[in-house]
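Task 17 of the worksheet. Students: predict the tertiary structure of the chain below and write it out as structure tokens. Keep your answer in the requested format; marks are given for formatting as well as content.
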Amino acid sequence: MPLFKKNKIKLVAEVKKLQHKIELLQNRKDTKIKKKEPRILKNSDLMSFLKHSKNSIVLIDKNGNILDVNKVGKTFKKENIIGSNVFLFITEESKKIVKKAIASVFKIQKPAIYGSSIMTKEAGLIYYSSSITPIIENKKVIAALIEVEDITEEINIQNKLKESEEKYRTLVDISQDAIIVNQNGLIKYVNPAALKLLGASTPEQLIDKTAINFFRPADHEYIRRRVKNMRETNTFGLLVDEKIIKLDGTVVEVEAVATPFILSGKPAIHVVLRDISDRKNMEVLMKIKERDTMLTRHVDLVPGSIFQYQIFPNGRTMFPFASKKIWDIFEVNPEEVRQNASLAFSRVHTDDREDMIRFIRKSMTTLQNWDSEFRVNLPSKGVRWIGGHAKPEKLADGSVIWYGYFSDITERKIIIEHTNQSLQEKDVLLKEVHHRVKNNLQVISSILNLQSTYVKDEATLNILRESQNRIKSMAFIHESLYQADNFSSIHFSDYVANLLQNLMQSYSKINQLIKLNVNLKTIFLNLDIAIPCGLIINEIVTNALKYAFSNNKKSNEITITMRTEGKNIRLEIADNGVGLSKTIDYKNTESLGLQLVVTLVSQLNGSIKLDRTKGTKYIILFPK
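Model answer:
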């Protein structure tokens, strides 16, 4: 075909030149042509052109008879061709085309171009690209020149390419992997597997659609970088796992590989996608199986039974899952209760069965956790104590399932019973101790009181009275503990009330002129804090009763406040009396009472401050 295009113009020009010379020759009187031989063959210029033309040129009449030929190649002999009809060498499928072209040239007197093929014994099928140019004499076509170019090699290459493309397309069409051709970001081809993978029924649903939109938006930038790198380096894309979005919006996991290539002279990308959802699901199932196996091993190591217990609306009960150690709880195998739980609950002690049913029904109604302790009567072990804990969940079918565990708590129950018995014995013993200490302190207090009846000296009487009050303050502590159910701490506000009542009775001569303001929050103190704290209150209130109100005014008040401040307890004892003299250093004084206060505050790891602005006010802080 290319060779024909190059020589076409030259051929037409030569033919016109020859036609002009032919006309001149025909006008000469001395020119005569034999009847059996066409006049055109006597034209020396035409014969010279036929001889020296680079292409094969055949001279024919209007019926296709070959008048002359310049080149026949190795396949034919010239003497066998001249005089023959051109249609003898043309394949059946080409004859119609050639006949039409020849008829057209002789009729409209214009050149024609066509393609044809001939069959030879030696070379087989040969393909030609031909053009027919008319030779006109007296405005009539007397013959035609056929210029022939052998394009067999090109046709064979095209046929092989077509065959290769058809094989490739067949392989692509039957491929189980999705194959997509992407050019300029648009989908240009999809095979049937790609239609199925992307959820399309026809190629038109995908062709010219933006390819990247079938990937998750979060992956777009990453994919663009990969495509750019692949184009710049002209290398295969790595095999990677991706997630694509089907037309219906569902996400599919695929394995993708991309290859750059040239399509119609422009860069394109050949993408192969393989659906790996089944493989991923299998991997998930394998992981779940491995996890379940590992979980089962761990569950079997738990000293108790992990279980799922389910109740259906029709009342049927079962254990969908129970670890092997359910045997230790009910002496049943997991398989025996997987569909029916009645065998397990038949082991529950008859005295505990109704309570257990009531707890389960309450949990089923309120969907609150079920906690219970009950007895079972086992064939081999007899009566055992079992502890159960489970969390309920309501299911769509109306049933309720509990996730929980059972454990044998028999040994713990025995230990608790022994411990409780021991504690009861110790409680009795402690009560007796506090009672005897209180009695002994009261005996000492009574002895001091009896002794004071024989003492006439007022100073000695005050010493005895103060000692007696100190002893009573400690006796009140033991009395409170003896009366309390809890020996670890006492209700300090009740204790202070008894202590103040005793002090007011001891100084009954002046208590009518003094008002007590007590503001104590509900505070519980242990024995180690309560005794020194009680003695501190006893000493400071005693000093106030004895020395603060010598002016006999009517509005004499003692205020006691106690509250918690963070991790500390704040105790304030104040009076509105004459106040402690500024010359007295309360931390370094010969007064036994104040010495005792400072020492006891130090024992409590606390601090003490003195405010003399309005009477006397002690501020004491100590940790709980």
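Marker's comment: The longest helix spans residues 410-452. The longest strand covers residues 124-137.
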